Amino acid sequence: MSKNNPAPYGVPSFIWTTILPARLLINAQFRIPYPFLPAISRGLGVPLEVASLLLTVRGLLGATSPLFGYLSDRIGRKPLMLAGLLMLIAGAALLVTGRSFGLALVAFALFGLAKSSYDPAMQAYVSDTVPYEHRGRALGATELSWSASWLFAVPATGLLIARWNWRTPFLVIALLALVSLFGTARLKAPRTTSADRPGDATMRDNLRGYLRPLLSRRTLLVLAVSALVILANEFFFIIYGVWMETQFSLAPTGLGLTSVVVSLAELAAAVLSAVSVDRLGKHRALFIGLAANACAYLLLRRLAGNFGGALAGIMLLAATSEFSIVSTLPLVSELAPTARGTVMAVNVALTSIAAAVASLVAPRLWQAGELGAVTTASAAGIILAALLLWLAVAVSRPQQIPPLPPASD
After folding, report:
1. Residue of 371, 135, 78, 106 lying closest to 235 (CA atoms)
2. Helical segments of 149-216, H only
3. Which of 21, 243, 286, 355 is most buried by its number of CB atoms within 10 A?
């Protein structure tokens, strides 16, 4: 079995040995600053609100992903994946050696560019390599890195900070990313990519022709579904900490424990999506996920009367939201095969924008009506996403052409 051939369960071995470890590091740099931002702010000697600018700069650079996606369509997936890992290494090394807030800003800017470069190129590489019938499992396997980065990286970061200092975890990330860089360099090129498909020669010279598949109704509808799923779920997860503190007087330690529970639910849902989406069918699986996600929001208000019920409700929300998010990826990957890298990158950019919008809207929803307002808005967003998915399925069906009448004698 060659390195890039699908394994018996539909997941190539290179995903487990190369893609998943690299993606775990990319996601670790994204997730660990949130719980440890106070330690970072003290280490840099700046107030917490100033240190939060590190995350703002990193997040804004997520909007650059379409540029990297276009480049991956033009020059190949591996160069952009390698560039992402190089920027991760450079950012982590700068954060370890630099001693000023300005250098820390540059480091976090590199982190943002690293994720914007690596993620869409990696998703396009996997999609180029794995047949569509196995792609749900393959892309779902790569998404295990999101919950795993919280489960493993956050506790390890706490231990490293307690033993040494806040810079030590980033030194570990830099060293491990260097190993991933060499592993990624050894990946084989896909047999067919958007860069060598027939007819692409004219596309290189015709930007309008290149963009045409990106502007089809089905592509726009599915991308809108993906963004809405992120928007609706971010509404809740942005305020769930303050809700748990207000409702149950939960201390930070308790909040950390609930976060571990959330990550376990996310991990279970990512596994379920990976093993079921291909069997159920891409659209059907996403419909099921969206329906379960909307029901979870409507059910939460009934479960929120006690801590046990609230925790069960949060786990259900985490599982159904992660299942829905992971289930969108195989659909997005096949919207425009000749511009796959760009489509995956536009999806990353739209979901980043959706998360940014949610961070502005969610606190206002909370102030207006607390949990009821937030869960109502989230359920409405998920239901709208399901309606748009139904429209996307309708417009993608081939038109039925009536048979010609029999010729008369």
Report:
1. 371
2. 154-163, 168-185, 200-204, 207-211
3. 286
CB 73 within 8 A of CB 194: yes
Dump pLDDT digits (tens) for 374-392: 999 999 999 999 999 999 8
Contact at 8 Å (CB) between 88 and 173? Answer: yes
Tokens linked to 214: 């990106």
- For the stretch 125-137, pLDDT in tens is 998 888 887 788 8
Q: What is the distance between the alpha carbons of residues 278 and 275, in angstroms, rounded to a whole number? A: 7
Distance CA 217, CA 74 (A): 24
Tens digits of residue pLDDT in 42-75: 899 988 778 878 877 887 787 788 888 888 888 8
Residue whose tokens read 């599982």: 319
* Cα–Cα distance, 6 to 143 (Å, whole number): 17
- Contact yes or no for 392/222 (Cβ under 8 A): yes
